UniProtKB/TrEMBL annotation:
<dbReference type="GO" id="GO:0016301">
    <property type="term" value="F:kinase activity"/>
</dbReference>
<dbReference type="Pfam" id="PF00294">
    <property type="entry name" value="PfkB"/>
</dbReference>
<dbReference type="InterPro" id="IPR011611">
    <property type="entry name" value="PfkB_dom"/>
</dbReference>
<comment type="similarity">
    <text>Belongs to the carbohydrate kinase PfkB family.</text>
</comment>
<keyword id="KW-0418">Kinase</keyword>
<dbReference type="InterPro" id="IPR052700">
    <property type="entry name" value="Carb_kinase_PfkB-like"/>
</dbReference>
<dbReference type="InterPro" id="IPR029056">
    <property type="entry name" value="Ribokinase-like"/>
</dbReference>
<feature type="domain" description="Carbohydrate kinase PfkB">
    <location>
        <begin position="5"/>
        <end position="295"/>
    </location>
</feature>
<protein>
    <submittedName>
        <fullName>Sugar kinase</fullName>
    </submittedName>
</protein>
<keyword id="KW-0808">Transferase</keyword>
């Protein structure tokens, strides 16, 4: 792996999606890849950010498909390790108001990720390591890996971006209150934190972005995503900017948060300010909301589209009047 700007570390599964209607009545299905960390990596690659993905996949054909799909998007996958286990999978029942999802991930190769994977990711000396709150819920070794990353990355001069990504189903087998404590401690150590206002309310009982900032402390940057309303970007202590989201017809809501994170990170890596980076995040999220999969879409962004994204992000007129 050549030196990347970002390395994303975490689980990716195969995703089975019905082509013609709901899951119960569909006759045809398509196989995609899905995982918050690889979603972010793929979106960053489409924005021409040098990015790698570190994870573990099974030696099964599903693992072959996942690896090939992520690599085809321009992500460096040389940090992925294969194991004689199965690759996780889930089946989606799509709906505009929110999909139902059925997971088959217990005992997967990804659940065996460890501190070794973190050290391998950091050995490439990226500018930033991207992690999510999904990983520590997968297994004891995965939790140890994320904890290790929070100390090893700063020691290596690598910034840490942590997306809380609270998934209640993954924490049900853990002791009561474990998710709230673990996710708060991890987020408090990160240089950049993404969290949805609704998920913060569910896991921490907070009511506002200001309360989230107080809970996590003043370190680093905090971006609070408020659904279709706005993203709040906190920086330099408790000063905040509010950036409205774009109105968009929703095809599939899952994956929009990952696209937002990629847009925001791309903006920051390119030297944009917090407000412009939030705008770029919203633009990428809007594109993901129009896709039936968890990614921006199968085709790379056209040169004209990339130019429009950047122009809209840094331009004086908001929202942009033409595409």
């Amino acid at each position: 792996m050549a030196r990347p700007d970002v390395v994303c570390l975490g689980e990716t599964m195969a995703q089975l999606v019905p082509v013609d209607g709901s899951l119960s009545g569909a006759l045809e299905f398509r196989l995609f890849t899905a995982g918050s960390e690889s979603n972010v990596a793929q979106a960053l690659a489409q924005l021409e950010v040098a990015v790698g993905w570190v994870s573990r996949l099974g030696t099964d054909p599903i693992g072959d498909r996942v690896l090939a799909a992520v690599a085809a998007s321009g992500v460096d996958v040389s940090g992925v390790r294969r194991q004689p286990r199965r690759t996780g999978m889930f089946v989606k029942d799509p709906a505009p108001a929110g999909s139902s999802v059925y997971y088959y991930r217990d005992g997967s190769a990804a659940s065996t990720m460890s501190t070794e994977d973190v050290d391998r990711a950091l050995s490439h000396r990226p500018r930033m390591l991207f992690l999510t709150g999904i990983t520590p819920a997968l297994s004891d070794s995965c939790r140890a890996a994320v904890r290790h990353a929070m100390t090893a990355a700063p020691a290596a001069g690598v910034a840490v971006c942590f997306d809380v990504n609270y998934r209640p189903a993954l924490w049900r087998s853990h002791p009561a209150g474990a998710a709230a404590t673990e996710l708060r401690e991890l987020a408090a150590q990160a240089d950049v934190v993404f969290v949805g206002r609704d998920e913060a309310a569910e896991v921490w009982g907070t009511e506002s972005p200001a309360e989230i900032r107080a809970l996590l402390g003043q370190r680093g940057e905090l971006v609070v995503k408020d659904g279709a309303l706005a993203a709040f970007s906190f920086y330099e202590g408790d000063q905040a900017q509010v950036v409205p989201a774009l109105p968009v017809a929703v095809v599939e809501p899952i994956g929009a948060g990952d696209a937002f994170a990629a847009g925001w990170l791309c903006g920051r890596l390119r030297g944009l300010g917090a407000q412009a980076s939030c705008r770029l995040g919203h633009l990428l999220a809007a594109r993901a909301l129009g896709s039936p999969t968890d990614q921006l879409g199968p085709a790379p962004l056209a040169a004209s589209e990339r130019a429009w994204l950047y122009a809209a992000a840094v331009g004086s007129s908001w929202p942009p009047k033409t595409a």
